[in-house]
Amino acid sequence: MNTSLLLNFCKQDLIDRYSGSILGGAWSFVMPLVNILIFTLVFSKIMGARLEFLGAEFTEYSYSIYLVAGMLAWNAFANTLLRVTNIFNDKGGLIAKVNMSLLQLPLYIVLTETVIFIISLVFFVGFLLLIDFPITIHWLLIPVVFVVQQLLAFALGFIFATLSVFIRDIREFINVILQLWFWFTPIVYIVDILPESARQLFSINPMYLLVSAYRDLVLFHQLPNFSHLVALLAFGGCLMTLGVYVFRKLERDIRDFI
User: Fold this and answer.
1) How many other C-beta atoms lie within 10 A of the C-beta of residue 108?
2) Of 131, 134, 143, whose CA–CA distance to 60 is shortest?
3) For 52-63, what is the mean pLDDT?
């Protein structure tokens, strides 16, 4: 699959997401903006949720900043994982008609979710500038964390995509896992409220380590734990290698089943 075809898939994916609507692809900008407004206005203004660690001058919006930093990461990860998992079943008709690389096909999903993440991040930065929250040089490392995150999402999704061709229950299984995984990750709550024994469990949660890295960069203006990122990068690489190996063994059967 060449680059132009991949970009075309990405463009069409953004258009098809809101096909039939008046605004069409413009919803790709509207929805992230609406989400940012909900997180910031509802939780800061209406619910009055606050955190004290950002300092008195940002107390009003502290929880909103904490929440958005986690939600942007989670949305990109979860959407990538779920959509890659379903790729072979969703594109079965196209795969049967067009000779294409099944290994490269899911890459357009990663590209699409990257575009949505960037749009959301731009709106987030706009909000932070509006309230005079400092944007530091640490933000330059956000792409590094994002690459590690998306590698992990793609690798897991590709393994499940291969299996889901033969086991249809995989799709529903992933939906359940993502629900549990979301609440096992401190996105809407603070990990400090949990007992010390419970906090130790979070060290085995990759998304907790990734969300913490984002918050280190955005909220605390400090470098993330690079040992965690390197470990997750290696883990994602191993999963990707496993996924490619399993796919190669089953590729002919996948095309037959589809």
Assistant:
1) 22
2) 131
3) 62
